[in-house]
């Protein structure tokens, strides 16, 4: 245990000099003649203003009588607001008083400027200021004469109101963090000889309570608290205890980087975790779903190890998707205590379109929906989309985009539709509702959107591309979900659109050729008429309000269509 150190200086003050007796002079000369060395004899001078070092003796409670047999009497009063102790000396000689911290063999003076010794005349009082109200704080008094007995009172050691100095106790402790690599190390410097207990705890964030970790008691050795095999993290902390109070001290709060990092990316039906670490480490990961505790590990658990290198080494861990709506839980496994990190990948960034996920979904469930929705279709009849829909009917845009370029084109088309329709018409597309899709799953989101369109008599736009050509074959077992979707949307409410640079008429399957088809962007005015909006020829839109914004959206769609076509040709040549 370390304690605050202070440099001591001896001060000699000139006072009334008393003539040395012949016996004293003779004694001094005998000592010098026998040893042959100069000897400095102690001075008898006494300073009444600052008596710091004198030969005094601890007070004997049973001693009575003269000044040499008993220390001075005094009383005190605690002044918490002023952070001072008022000492009162009864009538009698002057007394020197001070505050000190009691250790095993000595009572150490306080640090500056609280180390003042004050001389108090008999029958008067003096206030002694303190920095921290601690259990080892004592009041010491002594007469000004040489070799007098000291009186000392330490009233706060067994103070009934001990909780009052708990805040002062933790403020007085100086914590020094020496944590590095896989070791948590904290050194304490104390004003009092206290035995503090410690354990490890963990926060969820910077402002939450620090929860104790099981079996994580830290042993103290000479003021050092050390725990081996720990994954250092700013939210993994020490918790110190003294009686009924506690204090949390977190290493690396100054902003130093953690020893490892992880990021996530999606590819097809896989999640790729990129690990980067400055030390050799092993990692594990598993899926976590809403309703589970953070420390609850599910099966299976995927693991990977990483060797140490001169620079941060990066390794990848590939994890298959189990079911929608999940997050990944990642932690180190080569240490005893590690904080788990939670990553939630965005569904909108996956390499598959929403329709592809639907086609690979629950065929049995959609088969049942097929029967029910086909019966409903026979009962539904309504006007053609171009017969003046009016109102604010929503438009559901379905797509099978399987590349980043095609997804950007889908997003631009949705923005163009929303700008052209206006009037509060809502355009529904999965790219704009990634968070909702991640929460409920692709299939529930799709059927909820279709139900809203049917209820509000909206329109379903099916954006076709060559990626879905083989998926409409009746001999293909994967056609059940798509046929269920087409049957669920009544024919008067289902339109087919395609970009001519990405899809030819021959790419449209026979089962869909009976639908009203619109070629983009050539048939754009006719599509607006079918959607119930006022048709606007591409060459004559300049005079309408917001025409500049609409033209910029049209031009963006053209550019993205050309880019998607170029990338598609490059991919075909590469194959």
From TrEMBL:
Keyword Transmembrane: yes
Membrane topology: Single-pass type I membrane protein
Record's subcellular location: Cell membrane
UniProt KW keywords: Cell membrane, Glycoprotein, Inflammatory response, Membrane, Receptor, Signal, Transmembrane, Transmembrane helix
GO function terms (MF aspect): interleukin-17 receptor activity
GO biological process: inflammatory response
Name by which UniProt lists this protein: Interleukin-17 receptor E
Native organism taxonomy: Eukaryota, Metazoa, Chordata, Craniata, Vertebrata
